[in-house]
């Protein structure tokens, strides 16, 4: 069933997601979309982690790991994208 | 290898790649600490990925309990990471804002210095007051006028009032939002200055009046010039009238004075008759002086000038005017006084008028200080006359001075404060001095005696020697043609000439004179001399007649006679072909002398 640490982890993840979403909504943070997408996928993976203990354990487990993988993809893409920025664009 | 392990390997590689690329992100884009947070974030999930691989590949489950802590750390570090980016973003925004503000301030500063330069360049005083009448700004000219009073209430600082002044144009512009103008006189140590105040409201973006701007222009000089022009115009019109009257009056006086002088010669042995004639002659001469004054005052002509040192003339005229008075003159006159080019008669009249005025201002007696001095006037002299070298003659009395209300009209013709005054004295003085290119001013000295200053332009020309005057009557011989439109004058001159031994023929106008002259030439009995009246009503005058006569006989000896003693023709008679002038009214000895001058030795002493 539910593991206490996973629930706490999920709650922290959702709270963090709300904070991040709220801050990102308040202002335009350049090149943050990819990081946000990666973070969102990690929180989603947490949800799957909690839910896999209740139903569809194998599928949700696979989905959890896929979410991590996709998250890694987005983070990598975000970092690569930042390295491609020219100084003039960055300081704008 | 199962699916989960494959996915974990992919995700671990992904985080590894992200970790590596994080090293190459430019430091300009994110802080070092942000990048450091990114290393931790990517490193954490790289480790999580490795633990998952180890777990799902069945290598070890040792790290499994720590995975939850790593994920919690990831959440926390991700928040730090995000706020670090936001901080950088805010800083950039702040820096951009500061740069924009600096640029705006620089622009505003440039605008301000431009406005300051414009305000300083404007020759008017400018002051800005808010709705409470607190002075917000004064330009340099305004500060010079009223002192630096920024921050004070204008009514307190400028007018020493406890509340806004009645009729203040700035207050009026606050009320109706329109431009208001006002003229004010401002007492200053040396007299009064006049200013024009223009007030207009300053309106903000909401259409509200938040302040008023006051432009103060010193119009003293303009006002003085306007007054001068008005005075000159008044003088000109009155002068024309006076000149006309004086001319006619001179004709009458010519007959009167001439007949008296003739009568004197006829009644040479009767003392009583002669005494009466002398009295009548004196009265006529006084009338001539008055007429002369009218003519001088009028703009009828230029003064007959000669170069001289005015010390003697001023001294003699002053003393002459004070004969029998209980007032004395104190003279201060330097020997090295510059020469001036003046009409001695006219200047003498100016001196007489000023000294008589001073005498009348001191009925109990006193001293008139008369001084002459050389003075250099600069471009910005208060009289606004041409700068240069001037001789200044000062007349200072010890009377009660001139009242402020009399000051503006003191030089106006027919304006007098005396019961028996004609109002022509100072007007004549003003006119004479103006005609000499000079200026006359008065320092009212209320209660402490008035001071009149006469400025005459100095000259480098040399003094001409003049022959001495005498009353000798010269008899002569010859044929003289006289032309005058006045019957009385014609018959008088004919009689005078007959008495002097000449044979005289008269004509009433220029045309008749020309005809007579031509006829005499044809008969081979030409006239020895011709005396022409300058102005003939409704007929040919002396100038035109002279021109024709000179074409008939270039050697004709022609005298010009006129009541307009100051007429340009009289002043420059040689230029018009005349040999001499006989100003009306004249006495028999003057006529005899002139004829002797042009006819030479044929005349003999009586």
Give an account of the 3D structure.
- Chain A is mainly α and 92 residues long.
- Chain A has four helices and no strands.
- In chain A, helix 1 packs antiparallel against helix 2.
- Chain A is flat.
- The relative contact order of chain A is 0.14.
- Helices cover 48% and strands 19% of the residues of chain B.
- Chain B contains 16 helices and 19 strands.
- Chain B is elongated and about 175 Å long.
- The N and C termini of chain B lie far apart (167 Å).
Give a brief description:
The complex is a heterodimer of chains A (92) and B (606). Chain A is mostly helical and 92 residues long.
Number of helices of chain B: 16
**Any guess at the CATH architecture of the largest domain in chain B?**
2-Layer Sandwich
Number of strands of chain A: 0
Approximately how much helix is present in the residues of chain B? 40-55%
Mean pLDDT of chain A: 83
CATH superfamily of the largest domain in chain B: Histidine kinase-like ATPase, C-terminal domain
Structural class by sheet pairing and helices of chain A: mainly alpha
Radius of gyration of chain B: 49 Å
Index terms:
heterodimer, A: 92 residues, mainly alpha, 4 helices, 80% helix, disordered C terminus, B: 606 residues, alpha/beta, Beta-Lactamase, Heat Shock Protein 90, seven-stranded mixed beta sheet, five-stranded antiparallel beta sheet, 16 helices, 48% helix, elongated
């Amino acid at each position: 069933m539910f593991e206490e640490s996973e629930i706490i982890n999920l709650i922290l993840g959702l709270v963090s997601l709300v904070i991040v979403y709220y801050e990102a909504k308040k202002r335009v943070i350049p090149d943050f979309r990819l990081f946000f997408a990666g973070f969102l996928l990690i929180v989603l993976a947490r949800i799957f982690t909690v839910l896999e203990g209740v139903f569809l354990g194998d599928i949700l487990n696979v989905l959890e790991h896929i979410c991590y993988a996709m998250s890694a993809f987005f983070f990598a893409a975000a970092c690569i994208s930042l390295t491609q920025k020219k100084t003039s664009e960055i300081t704008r | 290898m199962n699916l989960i392990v494959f996915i974990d390997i992919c995700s671990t590689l992904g985080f590894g790649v992200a970790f590596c690329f994080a090293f190459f992100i430019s430091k300009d884009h994110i802080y070092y600490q942000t990048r450091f947070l990114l290393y931790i974030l990517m490193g954490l999930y790289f480790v999580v990925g490795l633990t998952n691989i180890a777990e799902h590949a069945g290598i070890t489950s040792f790290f499994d309990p720590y995975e939850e802590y790593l994920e919690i750390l990831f959440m926390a570090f991700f928040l730090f990471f995000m706020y670090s980016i936001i901080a950088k973003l805010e800083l950039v925004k702040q820096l951009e804002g500061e740069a924009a503000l600096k640029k705006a301030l620089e622009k505003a500063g440039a605008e301000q210095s431009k406005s300051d330069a414009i305000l300083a360049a404007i020759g008017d005083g400018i002051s800005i007051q808010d709705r409470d009448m607190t002075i917000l700004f004064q330009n340099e000219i305004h500060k010079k006028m009223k002192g630096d009073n920024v921050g004070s209430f204008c009514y307190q600082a400028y007018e020493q009032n406890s509340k806004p002044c009645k009729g203040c144009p700035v207050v009026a512009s606050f009320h109706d939002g329109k431009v208001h103008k006002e003229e004010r006189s401002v007492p200053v140590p040396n007299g009064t200055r006049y200013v024009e105040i223009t007030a207009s409201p300053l309106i903000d973006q909401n259409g509200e009046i938040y302040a008023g701007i006051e432009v103060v222009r010193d119009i003293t000089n303009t006002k003085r010039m306007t007054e001068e022009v008005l005075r000159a115009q008044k003088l000109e019109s009155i002068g024309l009238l006076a000149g006309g009257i004086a001319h006619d009056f001179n004709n009458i006086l010519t007959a009167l004075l001439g007949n008296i002088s003739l009568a004197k010669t006829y009644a040479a042995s009767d003392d009583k008759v002669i005494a009466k004639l002398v009295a009548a002659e004196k009265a006529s001469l006084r009338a001539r002086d008055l007429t002369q004054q009218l003519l001088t005052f009028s703009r009828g002509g230029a003064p007959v000038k000669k170069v001289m040192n005015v010390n003697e003339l001023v001294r003699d005229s002053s003393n002459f005017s004070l004969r029998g008075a209980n007032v004395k003159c104190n003279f201060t006159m330097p020997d090295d006084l510059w020469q001036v080019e003046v009409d001695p008669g006219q200047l003498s009249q100016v001196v007489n008028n000023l000294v008589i005025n001073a005498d009348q201002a001191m009925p109990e007696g006193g001293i008139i200080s008369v001084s002459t001095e050389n003075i250099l006037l600069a471009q910005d002299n208060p009289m606004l006359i041409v700068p240069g070298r001037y001789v200044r003659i000062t007349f200072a009395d010890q009377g009660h001075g001139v009242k402020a209300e009399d000051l503006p009209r003191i030089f106006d013709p027919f304006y007098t404060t005396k019961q028996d005054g004609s109002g022509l004295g100072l007007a004549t003085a003003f006119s004479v001095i103006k005609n000499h290119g000079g200026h006359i001013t008065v320092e009212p000295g209320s209660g402490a005696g008035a001071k009149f200053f006469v400025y005459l332009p100095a000259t480098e020309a040399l003094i001409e020697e003049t022959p001495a005057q005498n009353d000798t009557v010269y008899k002569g011989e010859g044929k003289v043609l006289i032309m005058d439109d006045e019957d009385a004058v014609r018959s008088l001159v004919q009689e005078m000439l007959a008495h002097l031994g000449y044979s005289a023929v008269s004509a009433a106008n220029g045309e008749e004179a020309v005809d007579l002259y031509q006829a005499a030439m044809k008969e081979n009995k030409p006239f020895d001399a011709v005396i022409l009246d300058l102005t003939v009503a409704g007929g040919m005058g002396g100038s035109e007649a002279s021109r024709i006569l000179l074409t008939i006989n270039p050697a004709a000896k022609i005298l010009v006679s006129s009541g307009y003693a100051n007429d340009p023709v009289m002043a420059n008679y040689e230029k018009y072909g005349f040999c001499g002038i006989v100003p009306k009214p004249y006495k028999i000895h003057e006529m005899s002398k002139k004829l002797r001058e042009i006819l030479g030795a044929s005349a003999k002493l009586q």
